[in-house]
Each structure stands twice: as structure tokens, then as C-alpha cells.
């Protein structure tokens, strides 16, 4: 299984994923997000002072878990994240990467939403479980399968 297979499985499951971060205090936080792919990078929109952004500043290790279907299929991705609040990145991502209208959450657009940032997740490994694993577990890891 390669990363393109993982991306396709995740997109087929749901537009929503649960995003896990860990703060400087060592405590986890999980929130729903609507991530979108740009090449091999998974992006999500956030607030510059959000718990997600603060946690990533302290610990870049993250995980995402897509909602499991009634059949029990699921995807989880582990990787490292970076926060991007620069105008160039915001302009590039604002139109064409996300499959929903970002203006609904930040009506000022990329130029008028200084409290908006984007989080890039660089996947390092992933797991696809078919039927809760009874139909097989399929792994991907950067640099080769495990």
C-alpha cells in the first residue's frame, strides 16, 4: 500500500478526521477537522492561537483518525506538523486546495484574516484497517512498508 492508496481510502471514508496533538504539559487534545491534501501534505485550517497551533509549537508529532464506516473500515495517519501563518501560504491554499469555502470561517480572506493559519501534516506512517482489521490491516511508512 502506498500513500496514494491511503489518501484514497481516507477520502472515501469521510471529509472529517479526528486530529490529535499533545501539548507542552504532555496532555493530549483531539478535535474534529476537515483536512485536504495538496500532494503528499495534509492541510487543515486553524486559528493562530488555537490549542492545535499551540500544541504543535510544543510537540510537532500528531495523528489523524478518519471516522470509521459502518463496515468498520478506518484510516489513521501519524506524522509531524508545522504551522503556517504567512500570507504567501495562506493565499496559495485559500482557493483550490480545500473542498469547502474557507471564507465561511474567515470572511476576511487570506489578506484580512490575521488570526487564521494552516497546519501542514507530513505523514510518516499510516494504517488502513478493513472491517476493523478482520478484512486485513495495510500499512504504509515513508521510505518503505513495514
Describe this protein with a few key phrases.
globular; alpha+beta; 3 helices; Pnp Oxidase, Chain A; eight-stranded antiparallel beta sheet; Pyridox_Oxase_N; oxidoreductase; single chain; 146 residues
Question: Can you walk me through this structure?
Answer:
Strands 1, 2, 3, 4, 5, 6, 7 and 8 form an eight-stranded antiparallel β-sheet that branches. A hairpin with a 5-residue loop joins strand 1 and strand 2 (28-33). It contains three helices and eight strands. 23% of the residues are buried. With 146 residues, it is of the alpha+beta class. The protein has a single domain, classed as Roll (Pnp Oxidase, Chain A). Residues 17-128 form the Pyridoxamine 5'-phosphate oxidase N-terminal domain. GO terms for molecular function: coenzyme F420 binding; oxidoreductase activity, acting on the CH-CH group of donors. Pfam families: PNPOx_N. InterPro entries: F420H2_bilvrd_red/Heme_oxyg, Pyridox_Oxase_N, Split_barrel_FMN-bd. Keywords: Oxidoreductase.
Amino acid at each position: 500500500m502506498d500513500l496514494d492508496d491511503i489518501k484514497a481510502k481516507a477520502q472515501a471514508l469521510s471529509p472529517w478526521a479526528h486530529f490529535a496533538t499533545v501539548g507542552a504539559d504532555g496532555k493530549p487534545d483531539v478535535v474534529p477537522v476537515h483536512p485536504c491534501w495538496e500532494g503528499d501534505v495534509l492541510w487543515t485550517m486553524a486559528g493562530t492561537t488555537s490549542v492545535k497551533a499551540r500544541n504543535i509549537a510544543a510537540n510537532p508529532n500528531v495523528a489523524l483518525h478518519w471516522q470509521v464506516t459502518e463496515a468498520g473500515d478506518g484510516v489513521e495517519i501519524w506524522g509531524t506538523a508545522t504551522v503556517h501563518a504567512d500570507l504567501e501560504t495562506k493565499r496559495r491554499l485559500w482557493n483550490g486546495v480545500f473542498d469547502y469555502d474557507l471564507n465561511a470561517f474567515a470572511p476576511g480572506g487570506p489578506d484580512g484574516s490575521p488570526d487564521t493559519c494552516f497546519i501542514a501534516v507530513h505523514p510518516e506512517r499510516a494504517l488502513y484497517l478493513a472491517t476493523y482489521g478482520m478484512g486485513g490491516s495495510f500499512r504504509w511508512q515513508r521510505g518503505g512498508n513495514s
